[in-house]
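DNA uptake protein ComE-like DNA-binding protein, pasting as requested.
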Amino acid sequence: MKSHFQFSNQQRNGIFLLIILIIIAQCVYWFAPINFGDSNDQNILDHEQLDAFRSEVDSLRLIEIENNKPKIYPFNPNYITDYKGYTLGMTNEEIDRLHKFRDQDQWVNSASQFQQVTKISDSLLEVISPYFKFPEWVTNPKPKQQVYTATYSESSTPKTYEQKIDLNLATEIQLRKVYGVGEKLSKRIIAYRNKFNGGFIADIELSEIYGLSPEVIDRIKEQFTVKTPRKIKKLNLNSATRDELVTIQYIDYEVAHHIIEERTLRDGFKSLDELTKVQDFPLQKIEIIKLYLHL
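Structure tokens follow.
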């Protein structure tokens, strides 16, 4: 063992020199910036490529999101369902206002009227109104004729009750002879009449037919009237129950409840016209509702 660890001064100096060289080489390996400039350039290049790749991925993601959005096709706003209204961004209250308006057999004929009925915001209206599609006769109404036919001119002598045709027996051809009643309106009149077993109750029901203006209704009533009214069971306004009242068109449970409340406060109604004092009563339909009531 001694022979292995005994060195001369020259050998010791050589060993120390070798150790120092090893330490210097190790330090150079760990700390010297070998090819530093090339590495930085490579890192910058890698970052640029990564940014370009990220940008491409983001653009593809946006395209996919846009493609997955529900597409809106032209539609008639009068037939918006709960789901359709939800997808358009309408609230439940706005959808309910539209449905309540349509339950009264009324129609929306313009974007401004749609906003008036539903009370949607201007921003939402601006987004969805370009997709509104109304019937052709609303968007491009035919010009009104200025001349009446000789048979039904304003100067003709008014017909008596006996001379008028029974509205419940009138044909489409007879109805079309009235100025302002064409093929579509005559079909609507007949279709409304056929909805009920027995036809019309009274002339006032003509106001229920969509598209008939007050002027046209007056001209129809000059030539036609209900002579054989449909038989109905009239309810006593001062004794009818809530369940009986809701069987009348345009009266729901809430209105029926208010009618009974008002009836109790008044100790009975003295006139059918007093219904106008009932809370939330559909005033525009009172003449129709009065057909089903008596005192």
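Note for the archive: Residues 77-139 form one domain.
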